Amino acid sequence: MLGNAMLFLIIAIIAGVLGFSGIAGVASTIAQVLFVLFLILFIVSLFTGRRR
């Protein structure tokens, strides 16, 4: 999932440099959502995975 976030971040950067503002905005939003979701799942797994 972190890989997908990084992929959309790279797409957003490339689209921003080339001037495709619509595509850059969408890719940036997707990257932010995936990154936040990854962080939430990571924190949850830290708390639930160590209870053995």
UniProtKB/TrEMBL annotation:
Task: Give the highest taxon in the source lineage.
Answer: Bacteria
Q: Which Pfam families match?
A: DUF1328
Give the matching InterPro entries. Answer: DUF1328
**What transmembrane ranges does the database entry give?**
7-24, 30-49
Q: For this UniProt record, give its keywords in alphabetical order, as a comma-separated list.
A: Cell membrane, Membrane, Transmembrane, Transmembrane helix
Q: Which family does it belong to?
A: Belongs to the UPF0391 family.
Protein's recorded name: UPF0391 membrane protein GEV37_00065
Q: What is the lineage of its organism?
A: Bacteria, Pseudomonadati, Pseudomonadota, Gammaproteobacteria, Oceanospirillales
